[in-house]
Amino acid sequence: MTAFFPRLSPLALACVAVSSAQAADPLLVVKIGHVAATSGPIAHLGKDNENGVRMAIDELNAKGVVIGGRKARFELLAEDDGGDPKQGTAAAQRLADSKVNGVVGHLTSGTAIPAARIYSEAGIPQIAPSVTNPRYSRQGYKTTFRMVADDAQLGGTLGRYAVQTLHAKTIAVIDDRTAYGQGVATEFERAAKAAGATIAKREFTSDKATDFTGILTGIKAAKPDVIFYGGMDAAGGPMLRQMKQLGIQAKFMGGDGICTAELPKLASGSVPDGNVICAIAGGVEPAQKPVLDKFKADFKKRFGTEVQIYSPYTYDATKVMVEAMVKAGSADPAKYLPVLAKISYSGVTGPIAFDEKGDIKNGALTLFTFKGGKREELGVVR
After folding, report:
1. What is the pTM of this model?
2. Which of 47-51, 149-153, 273-277 has the lowest mean pLDDT?
3. What domains does the chain contain, in order, with CATH numbers?
């Protein structure tokens, strides 16, 4: 019996060809997770970080990135950890269960450190844009990367600055007992003592506290030249206001947690010119500033708000992760992870490369003060 094959029209043949091509080369969906505190007292910092990732993803999708011969579409899976370690690990597990291709986050050391184990067990690369506690990258996980200098460098630099530049002889130290706050305060204290200062008081509070009158009254009696606070701006602002109410004239120092554009508002304007000295893990030299300034202008146009601190680093973290995928020809974490570990990339924040622990190589710090209610840069150090 003779087989019968229906004759297809040219249009039908074209449709079959297109359908076959699509089946052979479907769109590659790449899921990028982001975790930060987008609720609670530091939500403004968490949203800033999230928007940096969102901006990078928008640009990547508009560009039409090709990975391994397939056009990629990037999707953001955003999680809120509230700055709480338990919420942080729950968020990390949700992202792992969703089989994200990579994670940018978390915002804080206290959530990033326990979450790192979950990402490691799932084999998912994690790039932390703003985590400074040294322990984060010292857990031995090959999936862990950091975009900024750690507390050993940040706290140490501020401790030496207090003694050598501000000529402080007596210092009081307060921390909020979080992994971040306690870590940066300890490194500051160690460096200040080594430089010759006396630590007259070492106090602690919590990251949810708003009344520091008792602690500050005790500190006032010690007449410190400098008060260092290891914590975030949500507590640092009220602390500055209460220092003014108590007539404490000491300079106020802190790490990146207080070094935000929101600090004067949170302090109800109680930030005397030049009285606050803080440092941000990160920063660019003069030659890189036009690139970063353009990013800040584009960011404000896109979101209607100023960059807080670390959105340029979440933006770069997203871009460098995707660059590793492109170079590896795959978004499979197991395939692009070795490429990410050896990457050399030029971002809006400067050159990006990681050492054997996953820490940024030659990380920068930027020192700031406040004048006229606005943050003013003092200089970049490495």
Report:
1. 0.78
2. 149-153
3. 28-149+286-363 (3.40.50.2300), 152-281 (3.40.50.2300)
